[in-house]
Design brief:
Length: about 500
């Protein structure tokens, strides 16, 4: 991709091509692509009045709502860059990301006052934004595929979040790869019940304007509402994580209509039992593999292989290359486990303000995912572990090192180790094994209360166990696999 490669402005082009087609349905409101463009332009002009300029970073702390859609596309029309903020994080976590990204304005809403009331810097509630005067702008006819569209933070194994830079080209090629795999139907309606601040949600928005596809937006996941959309409103696709799929299956008492094409399942591998339940109930579910750094899915199990390759994430999407490297840093043989590497035009150009991490993680276009898997003899990917230490709980990524850092900041804690254990509802939940300082009387309840003030609730350990010593190697590094083995043994014996 050359530095000068451009395409028509995505939203402007879509509004021109199919102005009267329904773009979004939210609750009882329908918005056409022309109306979406007009509302986004109004937001862009209101942001301009506030002094926001091209390439400025605008923080977005909002819930799934049609207003959020208008704001996100308004930021795009202005040529600014959206910094997505997870509304499940604490004030201190949000504050860190705002400062790290050099965000000049935070757009939020009253619902999140407990979070933003403790923040510094310019803050604009969305209803106040919509009252601003408009300053005329010229919407660019073209956009560069190399221009940054969005920034999403993802934690690293050190526990320090990194801002992933996502270009328009990343989103364009992600949408293209998905279309070449799943196809595009005039009747498609994609349910978005996953958070828009996640790549799983935002990628659906980008596909909407690229495909000219209707998106049915939900504030959150409600299995009864989703079934109603599928049965009565002809919804054909939905993006889910395992917990959502389990709840959906439990509510089903009849086969889904033929208009429903597939459930795209991400956020970690599905259990064989869950996949078999989908087969029994005739729910077409296709596992996917992807991450923030790849602008959503990069590997998907095609429909014709869903039964023959049960448990596989599939093969790479058309624009993507995939390889497995073993411990000797050479390409692994079929069925040989190793680290998963990804290359393609949907791979991030790097991490905000972190050139050394970018150079370490992306070499010659190949992204080192840190995930472990293997390819079978037919080239299908089987993901065995997500970044080995990573805990995936209800589709949320949780890194043990981040929690350990918080626990160890307590004055009565000597050291802490965090692992993920299996959970029927959430897939995994974090538990902590803690060594107290000698002579202290710290309780589990006190440590949980301490954590609640510093971590998002889903990151707070569900169980805390006190022991005398953590397993460490000669370099004094925590040997996490021994901790996991110890935990399994104690649970079996207990």
């Amino acid at each position: 991709m050359t530095a000068m490669e451009t395409i028509p402005n995505l939203l402007a082009q879509r509004a021109y091509l199919t102005p009267n087609r329904v773009a979004f349905i939210f609750e009882d409101q329908e918005v056409t692509f022309l109306e979406l463009y007009e509302q986004a332009q109004i937001v862009a002009e209101q942001l301009t009045t506030l002094g926001v300029k091209k390439e400025d970073h605008v923080g977005v702390l909002l819930r799934n709502h049609i207003d959020m859609v208008f704001i996100l596309f308004g930021i795009q029309l202005l040529g600014s860059i959206a910094v997505f903020l997870n509304n499940r994080l604490t004030t201190s976590e949000i504050e860190w990301q705002i400062k790290d990204s050099n965000t000049i304005l935070l757009v939020t809403e009253e619902k999140y006052e407990p979070i933003f009331s403790g923040l510094t810097g310019p803050i604009m509630l969305k209803h106040e934004l919509f009252k601003q005067k408009r300053t005329a702008i010229i919407v660019p006819e073209e956009i560069s595929l190399n221009s940054i569209c969005s920034i999403m933070y993802t934690s690293g194994t050190t526990g320090t979040p990194k801002g992933v830079l996502q270009t328009y080209g990343n989103h364009w090629w992600s949408a293209t790869g998905a279309a070449l795999n799943l196809g595009i139907y005039d009747t498609d309606r994609w349910i978005c019940a996953v958070p828009l601040f996640h790549i799983s949600g935002f990628s659906i928005l980008m596909r909407s304007i690229i495909y000219g596809m209707t998106v049915i937006l939900h504030e959150g996941f409600d299995e009864e509402k989703v079934l109603k959309e599928i049965i009565h409103n002809r919804a054909s696709i939905i993006s889910v994580v395992s917990t959502m799929l389990i709840r959906l299956l439990d509510k089903m008492n009849a086969p889904l209509p033929s208009t429903f094409r597939c459930a795209l399942a991400g956020g970690g591998p599905l259990s064989k039992h869950l996949l078999e339940e989908c087969v029994k109930k005739n729910v077409p579910v296709y596992q996917t593999y992807g991450m923030t750094e790849t602008a959503s899915q990069v590997v998907t199990l095609s429909p014709e292989d869903s039964l023959a390759k049960l448990g596989s994430a599939g093969k790479p999407l058309f624009p993507v290359q995939l390889k497995i490297k073993n411990g000797q840093d050479t390409e692994a043989k079929p069925l040989e486990s190793g680290e998963i590497f990804i290359k393609g035009p949907n791979v991030t150009i790097g991490y905000l303000n972190r050139p050394s991490v970018t150079n370490e993680k992306i070499q010659s276009g190949w992204l080192s995912t840190g995930d472990i898997g293997y390819l079978d003899k037919d080239g299908f990917l089987f993901v065995q572990d997500r970044r080995s230490d990573l805990i995936i709980s209800g589709g949320e990524n949780i890194y043990p090192a981040e929690i350990e850092g918080i626990l160890q900041s307590h004055e009565q804690v000597l050291e802490a180790g965090v692992i993920g254990i299996e959970d029927l509802e959430w897939g995994q939940v974090p538990v902590a094994i803690v060594v107290k300082k000698a002579g202290t009387s710290l309780t589990r309840e006190q440590l949980i209360d301490f954590s609640l003030g510093k971590l998002a609730k889903y990151k707070v350990p569900k169980k805390i166990v006190f022991i005398d010593e953590l397993p460490r190697n000669a370099a004094k590094k925590l040997v996490r696999h021994k901790l996991k083995s110890w935990w399994k043994e104690t649970q079996t014996l207990g």
